[in-house]
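<amino_acid_chain>
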Amino acid sequence: MLETLYAPGITPSNSRPRVSNDNPYSESIFKTLKYRPNYQPKGFDSVTEARIWCRHFVEWYRFEHHHSGIKFVTPAQRHDGKSNEILRKRHEVYEAA
């Protein structure tokens, strides 16, 4: 494949040389998806079933998943600007303890 690209002068680009999984964001969300208790490794019976499962996953991820990369608040809390107050109250609890 690389020789086919090199022939007309195309240089392939990866974030990390010689690594196929060059999108850390999509790799991270896929790992989160695979480790959900109701993940369907054998697939779905229909496109509709897959869409419903994905809709539930996205809802869970946005509103229930406390993400370590954003100080254990949900993406929705961070997006809505509620995380500052949550983190302030959390800090007060830690200081009191």
Summary: The chain has a mean pLDDT of 87. The two ends are 60 Å apart (CA to CA). The longest helix spans residues 47-63.
